[in-house]
Amino acid sequence: MTKTHQKIIDEIVKKYKKDRKTIAINLFDSLMEGKERPDSDVDIEIVSNRFRKWVLTKSKKYGIIVEIVKCPKKHLFYQIEKYPYLCYEYLRDKILYDPKGFMKDVKKELKLYFNKNTKIAKFWEDELEIMRKNKAKGKDLKNAKQVYDEAEILFSDEHKVTRDFFN
After folding, report:
1. What are phi and psi of 35, to 5 degrees?
2. What is the pLDDT of residues 105-146, one digit of tens each?
């Protein structure tokens, strides 16, 4: 990870750790995997009781794109309960801040779900592998929204997109 990436992450964690309503902070995508490039964006999720709705913000800091998902704790429970098949990413996230073990418990619960639902886990592993290979070859990537739509159509009871987040 570059010094710039680390500086951005440290600043975000420091800012949100000060807020007593912050429950967890997670790092995801290439920085979490250690496969970043100097121009890789910073993808962070803040789970908090302060937020009223799920929001994705995008900004630029020190020339790097920073995407922050602001997720109310209540919404995270809703996601896991109604759309567990869309929560695979949480197994791969790196927890940056989790003072009460909340995210650790969430990961445990999701791990049990995906261990029981191996077809869904395989779908996500296959999609992630395709994205990694295409990225390495400089090919166009399926965007995350398309993959989430596909997963929801395949694995939901309704077999259609019904979620009201990440649209």
Report:
1. -115, 30
2. 999 999 999 999 999 999 999 998 887 777 666 666 567 788
Q: Is residue 148 part of a domain?
A: yes
Q: Give the side-chain half-sphere CA count within 13 A for 89.
A: 19
CATH number at residue 10: 3.30.460.10
Neighbours of 74 (CB within 10 A): 13
Residue 101 CA from chain centroid, whole number? 17
**Segments forming the whole domain that contains residue 74:** 3-155
Amino acid at 46: I
Classify residue 160: in a domain, yes or no. Answer: no
Q: How many helices (H) and strands (E) does the chain have?
A: 7, 5
Asked if residue 167 is part of any domain, the answer here is no
